[in-house]
Structure formats: structure tokens, C-alpha cells
């Protein structure tokens, strides 16, 4: 803005002065001298004045020029932007500040529309502003946004007024970006605060103690379910509290908070006023005091924590479920380091929590699970899938256990695996049961196979003696037979019969063992005597085979008496010696025992040694199993049921011992078995004991005997067996007849009562006989040798029992037992 005034005013002034002089000279046609002198003087004065004025003017002009330049400087470089706009919005003038606020060169802005340089959305505002400025005489204001090359926009405020001429407007421009941003962020944070209050369900309040009133935020109203007209007094607050909590809360507020000048911090129940729902809130408040320490206000927050509590409860339930789970639960990080393990895992593994957390589950590795399985597992879970499988683990104390595991990745909402979860069930028992079942199945199949072989063998074993009995019985019918022939046939029949009986006894014994009905009956047993008896029993047979027979009795000077089941020891020894005889054709058979005090506990070790055919090595394991014979084809040559050793083994087991064999093929075998030897057993001097028990058989001949038997052959056999003891024998075939004949013959001494009879069995007949005859001796004879049957017989009133077929010497023993005193 430079010199647009006329270059000099002096030219025109001079002209004006000359005109004035001329005018004066014309008005008076003649100048007087004096007046001319006067006039010249005036002119000179004027001239001086004019000169002075001129000088002043020059000075003023100079000053004005300087001020103008100063103004121009001030305008151009002012810290505030200025610009002049025309009515159509063109920029007529502007200073540097405006140019920099618009982000452009000043020259590029001149005579351009201001609207070009502001943001699109501000253009309307600018137009309105310009219109308002030109329509009014007052100051107008607006805010514009300038498109900025930088990320954040620039805000400008415009203050404008129309010029006097009315065709322009002067505008001042300021940068208000900072304050605008501050206001915006304030607004934002206020909105944020409000929103977060709503989300967190936190309401705020101020309680004024002087008025007893409180005011609260909108959120608080929502939490309490109250409207604007609610009574915002302390009693109003109390009325919101759940009735069960009111008393306690009043006490808390007055005594603890106000009385104790402490913070308000309590979770309590309210009844939300609009829907009468029970809600949980957490209220916190600070007390404010004035300079005199007088209580003024309480400011605080109330948060609706109902959902939090429910979530907490749910979380609690879940964590309880995990904690109390009967399954072991482990959570590891992605490296497999244990971060959590529940109590079941601790119990299962034997490692406590300190030993578990921070370690890898491989602490329980037993080495039995293959590395391939672990590899597969890692591949599965790291690719986001669930892995199922079994692990064989070791507890801390080394005990092995099996677990069935399901391992799955835990993923965050973005689908990234952050942890692994393992759920494990102890399946040791199941595994064992499975194993047992497999073994039982194999055993059952084996038994089945063996039983079939056994039945085939048994059929042969039973038929052979039966053929002997029937065949020779038939031959006996021949009246032309000599006495010697008859005796020979009878001997064969007797032998075949006893062989048959042996087989049947074996079968009964093994079935009793199998069904768990074989019992151990402990009595004082003189071991040496048993051995001597066996020696005496087998000596003739062995000598006959030209085999040496030796009883090795280490305690020969003494008697060894122990409490054991003597019948079972007999059975074992007899079986072993019988086998030795059966499988030995030359050499010798030795048997005996040694007292092994070196063993803990001490035991008696029996042995039966032969120089027979021996047992192949691969069969040694199996010969003690049921129905096993080393070689069925061989066996034809050596009769036997294949049950003897398994019965012996079962007996030895029952007595608490062991049985085994050492054998060399074609050289011989030695069978051993042990029974425990307890210290209370004594080795007695032969001289001092047992003297009175030497058997003294009495000849009993005068008994009146009643035989109750429905089988005619058995009846006949029985009457033959008892005839040496009888003066009279009565025979009946039924229980009813037995009762009748007993009535008629109260002097009967002995009744041999069959148990299994049709119509009325022996138990019932005995019971009824006992009603009128208490003193007659009744001996039950039964083919059933089960203990339960014997007990039943004794309960019915029998004195004793004897098994069929009747063994002569056993019957003799019983008759001696009951009648020897009567002789
Ligand atoms: P068996 O009644 O068939 O003899 P065992 O159970 O007593 O049945 O014996 C089973 C098998 O063991 C016999 O068949 C035989 O093969 C073998 N055995 C038993 N004792 C001897 C022994 N002293 N010498 C050789 N083999 C024997």
C-alpha cells in the first residue's frame, strides 16, 4: 500500500495564490503606493508563512510517509492475520500471517477466492459469514477448517466488518487449532467418562450434609431405578436398600463411616425401584470436611455389581468344578510348562504343587510311551486339534499308573493358541481289568482245550477199569473156573475198582478245589509216623518192581508233631510216591523231609526222588496245571488222570507252602514241597508221647444193625461189610420204612442211613427217628462228600458220616469209635 496521493500540492497552491492577487488588483483599479507597499509586505509575510507552512508540510509529509511505512510494516508482519475481502469473497489484501495460516504464498492468494483455500465442509460457513458481514454493520464471527497437508486439520477463526465504503470487508484471522482441539478432546473425554460410567454401571453422587440431600449422575438413577422426582435424602437412600440390609447399612453409615470418619466401602443389596428387582451394588465414598473439620459432604460412586457377582459365582462354580474334579486337570503354556494343576493331579502323580508348577508334565514319564506317540500328540495339538490317548506314567514314588488323556489347545479370541489343557483319568484299574480279562479269556480257552483233552482221557481212564470189572465179572460166572482162576479174576476186579475209585476221588477233589469248597482241617500231625506209614504201604509194591525204596528221616530219633492238615500231607506224599513208582522202572525211589531252619520263617521241605523217565524241560512248568499230562500218548502206558499234581499243588498252596520239581530226562525227577514250620511245633521224644494211642482193636460182633439203602447192590455190599460186627441185620429201602422199623426195634444199635433216597431222604428220616430214639448211632452214607452235606447230616441228627463206596477200614474205625466201650 504505497503513494496513491498527488505527487505535490504546491503547484495548485501557487495557482490559487496568483488568482487571489489578481482578484484583489482587479477590484481596486488603482493601487496607492502605501497600499502597494502594504500589499507587498503582506505578500512577503505570506510568502514567509507559506514557506514556513511548506516546510511544515514537507516535515508532515515526511512523518506521514514514515508512519505509512510503519503501518505497512505492521500490517504485513502483524502476528495476527488480516485480509480484505470483496463481496464475492475474493482476497483483495492480506498480510503474511494470513498467507501462512492458509498455508500458501501471499502472492498466490491475491485476488483469489478465499473459498478455494478452506476445507469443503467450511465453504458454506464462509459464504454465510460474508453475507452476514455485508448485510450488517456489526462484527461477525465464524470458524473455518483449512485443508492441511499435515495429519491434523487447522482451525481458523474469522472476525470481520464491512468497510465504510461498504464494498469491502476487513477481516482478522486467528489460529484456534489448539483451543479447538482441547475443547474437542474435553468434549470427547466427557463423553467417554459418561459412556464408561454407563458401561461400568458406575453412578456418582454428592451428599451434602448441611441439607441432608444428595444428587447423582444419570447412571446412578438407572442403577437405583429412580426418576427425577425421587426423594434424594438419606431416608430416600435407605428406602432403596433391601429390607434385609437396611438396619445393618444404617448402622454402618452412621457408626462406622460418619462416627469413625472413615471411607464408605460396602457391597449391599438394593431393590431397584422401577422394576423391584434385587440388585447388588458396591458403594464407595469419601467424606469431605471444612477448615474447622466439620463434616460437609460425601462424594462417591455406586456400582451395580450384580452381573459381576453372578459371573464371579459362575467362575467360582467353574473353578470349584475344576478343583474338585475327579479327573486330573493340567494347564500348560505353549512350551508345555505347567501353569495350573488341580488337586486330583497332585493325588494321582504324587507331586505336590510346588514340584508341579513351572515344570513339564514329562516329570511323570515312565519311558513306556513311545516317542512317536508324544510326537504325534504335539503335532495334533500344535495344529489346533484335540488329541486323545493313553499314557503310561510313573508317580513320584515310582509306582506306575495309566492315564487316559484328552489334550486340547486353548485359543484366544484371535484364534492364537496360548495354552494347552490336559484332562487325565486314572485308568490303571481299567487297564488291569482289561489285562485280567485277556488273561482270563486265554485261561478259559486253555482250560476249555485242556478239559476236552481231559474228558477224552477220562473216558479212557474210566472205561479201562470198568471193562476190567465187567469183563472179569462175566468170566467169574463160569462154573468150571478153578479156585485159583477165581481168585485171580477177583483180584483184577478189585484192582480195577480201586483204580476207578481213585479217578473218581481225584475228580471230586479237583472239583471241590475249583469250586472253593475244599477246606483245611488242622490237627496235630505226627509227620514221622505219616512217612513211616507211607513207606510201609508202598514197600511191597516197589520191592515187587525191583526198585530200591528209601525213607530218609532226619529226625528219626524224635517225633515231629506239627499242626497241619494231615490228610492233605498224606494225599500229596501218596500222589508223589505213586507217580515216582509209575514213572520209574529201575534204580531207586527216596523220600523224606528236611527241617529248613535256615529259611525265614522255618519250613519243612519234603522231597520224593526217583531215577525214572524224567520230565522234558519245556513241560516242567505245566505239569502242575490242571489236566496236564506230559505226553498224552505216553500216558497210555502210564495210567493217570493228569490231576494228581494239580491237586497236590492246590493242597500245598492251601497249607501255605510251595511245590516244584527238578528233573533230568531219562535220569529221574525230584519233587519238593514245603509247609511252614512254626516254632510252637515241637519235636518230641518218641519215648514220652503217644504211648496210650497205640491202636487196640476190639472184636465187636453183637450189634443189631439197620441198613437203609434203596440200591440193592449197595445194600448187599453193605450187609457183607458189616456182617462181621452184627448179630442181626435189618434192611429197608426207604426213609419211611426206616422210621417204621426203628419204631418197632428200639434196640437197634447202628443205623447206616443212605442220604439220597426218593420219597423221603436220609436227613428227614434221621430227624424223625431222633424224635423217639436219641441213643441209636446213625451214620450217614453218602456219595456226596461235600462238607456242606456232612454238616447237614450232623445237623439232622446223624452221629457221623461215611462216603460211598464204603471203605472197610474207615467203617471199622467208626464202629470202634462208637462201640468199643460196649464190648
Ligand atoms: P497223572 O495222574 O497223570 O500222573 P499228575 O498230575 O500226577 O497226573 O502228573 C502229571 C504228569 O506229570 C504225568 O502225566 C507225567 O507226565 C508227569 N510226571 C509226574 N510225576 C512224574 C515223575 N515222577 N517222573 C516223570 N514224570 C512225572
UniProtKB/TrEMBL annotation:
Keyword line: Phosphoprotein, Two-component regulatory system
Q: Which residues carry this modification: 4-aspartylphosphate?
A: 754
This chain's protein is named: histidine kinase
Per UniProt, the enzyme's principal EC class comes to: transferase
Q: What is the lineage of its organism?
A: Bacteria, Pseudomonadati, Bacteroidota, Flavobacteriia, Flavobacteriales
PANTHER family for the chain? HYBRID SIGNAL TRANSDUCTION HISTIDINE KINASE J
- Domain PAS intervals: 67-137, 314-360
* EC code(s) of this entry: 2.7.13.3
Q: Which residues form the PAC domain?
A: 264-317, 387-439
The cross-references to InterPro entries, in alphabetical order and at most eight, read: CheY-like_superfamily, HATPase_C_sf, HATPase_dom, His_kinase_dom, HisK_dim/P_dom, HisK_dim/P_sf, PAC, PAS
Q: Spell out the Pfam families in the cross-references.
A: HATPase_c (PF02518), HisKA (PF00512), PAS_3 (PF08447), PAS_9 (PF13426), Response_reg (PF00072)
Reaction(s) catalysed (UniProt annotation) = ATP + protein L-histidine = ADP + protein N-phospho-L-histidine
Per the database record, which ranges form the Response regulatory domain? 704-819
What NCBIfam families does the record tag this protein with? sensory_box (TIGR00229)
Where the record annotates domain Histidine kinase, the positions are 457-679
Amino acid at each position: 500500500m504505497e503513494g496513491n496521493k498527488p505527487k505535490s500540492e504546491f503547484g495548485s497552491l501557487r495557482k490559487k495564490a496568483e488568482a487571489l492577487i489578481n482578484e484583489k488588483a482587479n477590484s481596486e483599479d488603482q493601487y496607492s503606493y502605501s497600499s502597494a507597499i502594504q500589499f507587498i509586505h503582506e505578500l512577503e509575510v505570506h510568502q514567509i508563512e507559506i514557506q514556513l507552512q511548506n516546510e511544515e508540510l514537507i516535515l508532515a509529509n515526511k512523518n506521514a510517509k514514515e508512519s505509512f511505512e510503519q503501518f505497512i510494516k505492521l500490517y504485513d508482519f502483524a502476528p495476527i492475520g488480516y485480509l480484505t475481502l470483496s463481496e464475492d469473497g475474493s482476497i483483495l489484501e492480506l498480510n503474511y500471517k494470513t498467507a501462512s495460516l492458509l498455508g500458501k504464498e501471499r502472492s498466490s492468494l491475491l485476488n483469489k477466492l478465499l473459498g478455494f483455500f478452506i476445507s469443503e465442509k467450511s465453504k458454506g460457513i464462509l459464504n454465510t459469514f460474508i453475507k452476514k458481514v455485508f448485510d450488517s454493520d456489526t462484527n461477525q464471527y465464524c470458524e473455518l477448517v483449512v485443508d492441511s497437508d499435515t495429519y491434523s486439520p487447522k482451525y481458523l477463526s474469522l472476525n470481520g466488518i464491512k468497510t465504510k465504503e461498504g464494498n469491502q470487508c476487513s477481516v482478522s484471522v486467528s489460529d484456534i487449532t489448539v483451543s479447538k482441539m482441547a475443547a474437542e478432546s474435553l468434549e470427547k473425554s466427557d463423553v467417554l467418562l459418561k459412556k464408561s460410567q454407563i458401561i461400568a454401571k458406575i453412578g456418582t453422587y454428592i451428599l451434602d450434609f448441611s441439607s441432608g440431600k444428595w444428587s447423582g449422575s444419570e447412571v446412578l438413577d438407572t442403577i437405583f431405578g429412580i426418576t427425577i422426582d425421587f426423594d434424594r435424602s438419606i431416608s430416600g437412600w435407605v428406602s432403596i436398600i433391601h429390607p434385609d440390609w437396611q438396619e445393618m447399612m444404617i448402622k454402618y453409615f452412621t457408626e462406622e463411616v460418619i462416627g469413625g470418619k472413615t471411607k464408605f466401602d460396602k457391597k449391599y443389596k438394593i431393590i431397584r425401584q422401577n422394576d423391584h428387582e434385587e440388585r447388588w451394588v458396591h458403594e464407595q465414598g469419601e467424606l469431605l470436611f471444612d477448615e474447622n473439620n466439620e463434616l460437609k459432604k460425601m462424594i462417591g460412586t455406586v456400582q451395580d455389581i450384580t452381573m459381576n457377582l453372578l459371573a464371579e459365582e459362575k467362575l467360582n462354580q467353574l473353578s470349584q468344578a475344576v478343583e474338585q474334579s475327579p479327573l486330573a486337570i493340567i494347564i500348560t503354556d505353549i512350551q508345555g510348562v505347567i501353569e495350573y494343576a488341580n488337586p486330583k493331579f497332585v493325588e494321582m502323580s504324587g507331586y505336590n504343587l510346588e514340584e508341579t508348577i513351572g515344570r513339564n508334565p514329562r516329570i511323570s514319564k515312565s519311558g513306556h510311551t513311545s516317542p512317536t506317540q508324544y510326537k504325534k500328540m504335539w503335532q495334533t495339538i500344535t495344529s489346533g486339534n484335540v488329541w486323545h490317548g493313553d499314557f503310561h506314567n510313573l508317580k513320584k514314588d515310582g509306582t506306575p499308573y495309566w492315564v487316559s488323556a484328552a489334550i486340547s489347545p486353548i485359543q484366544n479370541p484371535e484364534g492364537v493358541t496360548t495354552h494347552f489343557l490336559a484332562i487325565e483319568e486314572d485308568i490303571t484299574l481299567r487297564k488291569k481289568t482289561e489285562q485280567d480279562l485277556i488273561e482270563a479269556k486265554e485261561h478259559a480257552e486253555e482250560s476249555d482245550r485242556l478239559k476236552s483233552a481231559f474228558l477224552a482221557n477220562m473216558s479212557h481212564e474210566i472205561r479201562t477199569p470198568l471193562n476190567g470189572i465187567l469183563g472179569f465179572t462175566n468170566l467169574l460166572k463160569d462154573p468150571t473156573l478153578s479156585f485159583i482162576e477165581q481168585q485171580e479174576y477177583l483180584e483184577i476186579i478189585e484192582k480195577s475198582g480201586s483204580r476207578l475209585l481213585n479217578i473218581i476221588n481225584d475228580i471230586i477233589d479237583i472239583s471241590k478245589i475249583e469250586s472253593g469248597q475244599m477246606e483245611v482241617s488242622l490237627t496235630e500231625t505226627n509227620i514221622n509216623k505219616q512217612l513211616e506209614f507211607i513207606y510201609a504201604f508202598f514197600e511191597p509194591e516197589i520191592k515187587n518192581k525191583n526198585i530200591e525204596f528209601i525213607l530218609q528221616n532226619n529226625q528219626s530219633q524224635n517225633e515231629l508233631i506239627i499242626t497241619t492238615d494231615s490228610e492233605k500231607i498224606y494225599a500229596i506224599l501218596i500222589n508223589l510216591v505213586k507217580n515216582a513208582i509209575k514213572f520209574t522202572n529201575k534204580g531207586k525211589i527216596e523220600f523224606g523231609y528236611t527241617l529248613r531252619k535256615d529259611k525265614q520263617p522255618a519250613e519243612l521241605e519234603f522231597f520224593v526222588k526217583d531215577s525214572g523217565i524224567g520230565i522234558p524241560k519245556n513241560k516242567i512248568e505245566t505239569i502242575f496245571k490242571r489236566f496236564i499230562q506230559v505226553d498224552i500218548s505216553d500216558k497210555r502206558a502210564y495210567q493217570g488222570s493228569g490231576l494228581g499234581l494239580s491237586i497236590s499243588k492246590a493242597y500245598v498252596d492251601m497249607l501255605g507252602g510251595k511245590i516244584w520239581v527238578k528233573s533230568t530226562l531219562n535220569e529221574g525227577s525230584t519233587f519238593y514241597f514245603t509247609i511252614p514250620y512254626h516254632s510252637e511245633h515241637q519235636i518230641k521224644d518218641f519215648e514220652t508221647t503217644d504211648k496210650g494211642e497205640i491202636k487196640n482193636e476190639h472184636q465187636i460182633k453183637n450189634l443189631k444193625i439197620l441198613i437203609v439203602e434203596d440200591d440193592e447192590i449197595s445194600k448187599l455190599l453193605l450187609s457183607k461189610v458189616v456182617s462181621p460186627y452184627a448179630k442181626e441185620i435189618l434192611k429197608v429201602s426207604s426213609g419211611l420204612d426206616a422210621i417204621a422199623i426203628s419204631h418197632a426195634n428200639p434196640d437197634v444199635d447202628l443205623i447206616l442211613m443212605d442220604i439220597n433216597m426218593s420219597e423221603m431222604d436220609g436227613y428227614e428220616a434221621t430227624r424223625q427217628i431222633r424224635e423217639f430214639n436219641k441213643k441209636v448211632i446213625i451214620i450217614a452214607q453218602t456219595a456226596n462228600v461235600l462238607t456242606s452235606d456232612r454238616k447237614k447230616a450232623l445237623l439232622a441228627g446223624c452221629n457221623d458220616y461215611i462216603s460211598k463206596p464204603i471203605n472197610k477200614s474207615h467203617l471199622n474205625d467208626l464202629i470202634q469209635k462208637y462201640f468199643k466201650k460196649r464190648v
